[in-house]
Design a protein that fits this description.
Length: 78
């Protein structure tokens, strides 16, 4: 979703990493796992979802859990 919004608005970007972000007290704490997009033939987010490695509902309901997160690189315009 974010990729589409950025691209539609002319913002070039490169998705670098996909990972599992630990949430505690409703705030991001740390990445529990991170995979490089170029090192995999599959989307890391899809791997994490299929492997049932997230707890999104728990994060939303209780403020603690594991959610998907991505790291994108956006070049600077000069």
């Amino acid at each position: 979703m974010v990729n589409g919004i950025l691209l539609r608005n002319g913002v070039p970007m490169d998705s670098r990493f996909g990972g599992i972000l630990q949430v505690k007290d409703g705030k991001p704490l740390r990445f529990r796992r991170i995979d490089h997009y170029s090192g995999s033939s599959l989307d890391p987010s899809e791997v994490f979802i299929r492997g049932r490695m997230t707890s999104v509902r728990q994060a939303a309901d209780q403020g603690e859990g594991k959610i998907l997160a991505n790291f994108r690189e956006i070049p600077v315009r000069r």
